Amino acid sequence: MSMNLLEKNVGQKDKYIRIGAGSLLIVLAGTGAIGAWGFIGLIPLATGLLGTCPAYTLLGKSTVCSHEHSSCCGSAAASEPPASAEPAAPAEPAVSSEAAAPAEESATSEANPPA
To answer: Quick one: pLDDT band at residue 77, thresholds 50, 70, 90?
Structure first.
């Protein structure tokens, strides 16, 4: 079983998050605000810049947009509703016949007062 470790499997939003978080960790480690462990930020920075993540490859995961769903990138192809979707009709409030009867009686008694 061969795996292509350089296959692009990191999507746009994922890239921005990785580059931002990695850069922040590296800057904080470089200024001494956090310990040397902050240089671990090189990993998300590199995977964000390269667009590939070896861990995603091993897990069979990808965040690259395929336009088969509507939540990845907000493009026109993804945001259009399916052709078979029909608008839902507004629901009418349910009124039971028991609740309607007293209302009708009071309306008729007001219109025709007893003599």
So the answer is: very low
Q: Reply yes or no on whether the pLDDT at 98 is more than 70.
A: no
Where does residue 44 rank: exposed (0-12), middle (13-18), buried (19+ CB within 10 A)?
A: buried
* Rounded-to-integer distance, Cα 63 and Cα 48, Å: 12
CA separation for the pair 20, 88 (Å, rounded): 42
How far apart CA 46 and CA 23 sit, in angstroms, is: 10
User: Can you list the pairs that 64-72 forms with residues at least 24 positions away whose Cβ atoms lie under 8 Å?
Assistant: 64/8, 64/9, 64/10, 64/11, 65/11, 65/12, 72/11, 72/13
Closest to 22 measured CA to CA, from 47, 1, 3 = 47
pTM exceeds cut of 0.70: no
